[in-house]
Structure formats: C-alpha cells, structure tokens
Specification:
Elements (H helix, E strand, L loop, with lengths): L7 E6 L5 H13 L3 E6 L1 H6 L2 H8 L10 H5 L3 H7 L2 E7 L1 H8 L6 H8 L3 E6 L3 H5 L1 H12 L3 E2 L3 E4 L5 E5 L3 H16 L8 E6 L4 E4 L2 E3 L6 H12 L3 E6 L10 E5 L3 H12 L4 E4 L6 E3 L20 E3 L3 H6 L6 E8 L3 H11 L4 E6 L11 E8 L12 E8 H18 L8
Parallel strand pairs: 1-2, 1-3, 3-4, 4-5, 8-11, 8-13, 11-12, 13-16, 16-17
Antiparallel strand pairs: 6-7, 9-10, 14-15, 17-18, 18-19
The structure holds ligand PMT.
Length: 421
C-alpha cells in the first residue's frame, strides 16, 4: 500500500451511487497515513451519511458553505489552503460541469476554485451520460484546467447498462494518489530562481487582416511555466497569441510578433538565471506590411511575398555577456537528433529539448509530447554523462516536470556565478 504519511487529502463526495465506495476509500486513505477531511455535496449525503465518514476519518464532515460554526474555525478558504491534494470521488456529470465552468454554488465547488492543491477526480455516471458530448467537453476542459481524471472504468453499471462510467475501485484510486504523492515528494525545488519562458506561436502580419503563423498552442510552454512556479521559481512567461489561462503564480507578458517577443525577452532575460525558449517563433516576417487589405487582381494567378529574417531570439540571449542557463526547443519532422545537436551548438545553448512534431498526437497543439533532451558537457570529465536523455510520450504537464528535473540536474553542473547564490 502507498505511503501517504503526512499528506493532507480533502475527499469530496458527490451524489452518485458509487458514493458507497467512498467510505472504503476514506478508510484506505487513513490506513495509508493521510490526514483526511471530507466534504460532501447535498447529493452525496443522499447516498451515504456524513456520520459514516466522520466515524471513519475521525474528523467532522463539512457539508455547507454557509456554516457559521465552521467559518469561525476552518472556513472554505482555510480548507482550500489546508489540502495538499483534493480528490473528488465520485464526481458526477453535474459536478464535472460545474467545475469545468467555474460554478461555485456549494462548499465543494467553492473550495475547488480557491485552492492551489493538486486536484483529481474520479468520474462516476451512466455510460450514456459519460459519452455525451457535453460531458466529454467538460472532461477536456477540466484536464486543460489542470485536473487529473482517474478513470472512469468500463463494465456493468448499477443502472443495468454496460460501458464506461464506473468509478475506479478505491484500491486503484489509492494507487494513483500514491504515484502523484511520490512525484510531488521527489520534485526538485526551483526556489530563488528567476525563469523566463517563451511560449506559443508568433503572428507576422501581412496586412490588417492576414498573418503568417504556425500551429503552436502554447500548451508545452504554459505547462513548463506552471510547473516551475509550483517549484517556487519566479516565472515570467512571454506568450504569443494563445487561448490559455495564465497559470497560478506566473507573470505573463503577451506579445504578437517575433520582434515584440525579442524585445520582451531581452528585457526579462537580463536578470533571469534560466531562459527557456519554447515558443515557435516565425523565422521570417513580411518585408513590408500593407496598410490596407491586399486585394486580388483579376489578372493575377500568383503572388510573390517578400520576407525578411526575424531576430533569432534565443541565439541573441545566448550572446549576452552573462547569459542565463539557456534551454532551447527543436521542433523537427526528420533527423531529430542531428538537427537538434546543430541547434545546440549554433545557438550557444546549454540544453535543447528536441521533439518530433511529425508524430500524430504529439507536439503542436496536442495534450501530449515526447522529447529527446541533449546538453553540453564542456565543463565535465568525459565519463560523467552522456549528455542525452529520452523522455517518453506523456501528457505535457508530466513532460514539463521531467524537463525541469533535467534542468535542475544540469544547473548543478553548469559553472555559473548565479549557482553560488
Ligand atoms: O505550443 P504547443 O502546441 O504545446 O507545441 C509545443 C511546441 C511543439 C511548439 C514546442 O514543443 C517546440 O518544439 N517549440 C519550439 C518550436 C520551434 O520553433 O523550434 P525551432 O526548431 O524552429 O527553433 C529552435 C529554437 O530557437 C527554439 O527554442 C525557438 O524558440 C528558438 N527560436 C527560433 C526562431 C527564432 N527566430 N527565434 C528563436 O528564439
């Protein structure tokens, strides 16, 4: 059984028949050493009584947002701050819809908006409800907002249907929580570091209504920013035009073009000790931007665009007198390693994260990615490292953690004055 000694877990119980399994789950969490507090929705209390959970956890169960006694003691904000991890099991379709839309109309949904804890939920509902496009949309939104979904499992359902929607068994949920807790325990802190990260695409205007750009969604760079902030770094995120929320604790600087991004990068990199170039920066821009919408001419079958080179932002940061520890990305569709090695050398980087963007489901726009990380070993004895690490396909938040782990390791080897601070 996973050890959760000292972990503060807030167990939220929604209104589904699977709530009867939550009593066993609470017991398993307690047996693993966790400090468990339970919050139940009104629906949850229709299936299992707060008294049962109170007896199993030894703690008063909270059920009401507007509870004068509790607000004087442990109110909803304190509960949100108290938790290392929030686990909602079962999470009904209705509860998922509320969470996905930021609705806070009871204690559980309110404290979920107020917390910085890791948030997990175990969906449980009828298979048709789970398959409904609205629920699927909400599930995607929750994942994008940082929730981890455990399950659902498929099989026979209490309603007589068969299919996906069963809550994972308590033992399986416990195993997932154990893995999350181990990951959190092993995280290398970045307290005291200032990190500037570029993310997303740039847009290079051609005229007032058209631009050159690429498919970067910003997900990889934002995942890095969120993970670095969670590790205690001061994070400055320079973002091209993306549709993502700013991660908690991150200072965001929005830009549009490569030249805007270069200006922001120079300003913010000077006193940063780590710079990560995750943005997909356009290498070229229009030589001149038309003042009015370009019109097609009746006698014109083709059109020539005259482009000029954009600044190579990361190479310019690398050329500063005292550059930060410099991490570039390489997006390649073939010869991944040789192109990445070339960029590592040519751009003066300390490390490069190479991703093969020709693979379906990985890279641009996707929620998942895989990477080959290469780093310089100039200052080290030859036998100390190979300078190469393969990071398998995983979701971008998990990959971001693995990249930061590698950066922290390499920082310890890099012979830089700021490491002595
Ligand atoms: O945003 P997502 O949808 O999550 O996708 C993530 C990603 C695929 C965009 C990301 O993982 C990635 O690979 N980012 C770098 C994309 C890229 O432009 O690679 P490149 O090989 O063209 O550039 C090499 C490096 O030079 C990069 O660090 C880039 O930021 C930097 N560069 C490039 C051109 C330029 N003018 N200035 C730069 O600083």
């Amino acid at each position: 059984m996973a050890s959760l000694v000292g972990k503060r877990i807030l167990l939220g119980i929604g209104g589904g028949i699977a709530a009867y399994k939550s009593a066993h789950l609470a017991r398993l969490l307690k047996q693993s050493g966790a400090d468990v507090r339970v919050v139940m929705t009104a629906g949850g209390q229709a299936f299992i009584t707060p008294m049962t959970l109170q007896a199993l956890t030894g703690e008063a169960v909270r059920t009401s947002l507007l509870d004068p006694d509790a607000e004087a003691g442990m109110g909803h904000i304190e509960l949100a701050r108290w938790a290392d991890l929030i686990l909602i099991a079962p999470a009904t379709a209705d509860l998922m819809a509320k969470l996905a839309n930021g609705i806070a109309d009871d204690l559980l949904t309110t404290l979920c908006l107020a917390t910085h804890a890791d948030c997990l939920l175990a969906p449980a509902m009828n298979q048709a409800m789970w398959r409904h496009p609205a629920t699927q949309r909400n599930a995607r939104q929750l994942i994008e907002d940082g929730w981890r979904l455990l399950g659902p499992a498929a099989g026979d359902q209490a309603c007589g249907d068969t299919g996906p929607g069963r809550m994972l068994e308590p033992e399986a949920i416990l195993a997932e929580i154990g893995a999350t807790a181990t990951r959190l325990d092993n995280v290398q802190p970045l307290t005291g570091h200032i990190i500037t990260i570029t993310a997303g695409p740039t847009q290079e205007p051609l005229d007032p209504v058209r631009y050159l750009s690429n498919h970067s969604s910003g997900k990889m760079g934002f995942a890095l920013a969120e993970a670095a902030a969670r590790r205690g770094a001061e994070v400055r995120l320079i973002s091209g035009p993306v549709a993502l929320a700013t991660p908690p604790g991150v200072t965001r600087h929005d830009v549009t073009t490569a030249c805007d991004m270069a200006t922001a990068a120079h300003r913010l990199a000077v006193d940063s000790d780590i710079f990560i170039g995750c943005a997909a920066v356009a290498d070229y821009r229009a030589e001149s931007v038309a003042a009015h919408k370009l019109k097609k001419q009746p006698d014109q079958d083709g059109m020539m665009l005259s482009l000029v080179r954009n600044p190579d932002i990361i190479a310019e940061i690398g050329a500063l007198a005292a550059p930060p520890f410099l991490v570039g990305f390489a997006a390649e569709t073939r010869d991944l390693e040789s192109y990445a090695r070339d960029k590592l050398e040519r751009k003066g980087l300390d490390m490069i994260v190479a991703n093969d963007v020709s693979q379906t489901g990985l890279g641009f726009g996707s929620d998942h990615n895989a990477a080959l990380v290469l780093w310089r070993t100039d200052n080290e004895p030859a036998e100390s490292t190979t300078g190469r690490r393969e990071l398998p396909a995983q979701d971008k938040p998990a990959l971001a953690e693995a990249i930061l782990d590698t950066i922290v390791e390499r920082l310890a080897h890099a012979n830089r004055p700021q490491d002595n601070q």
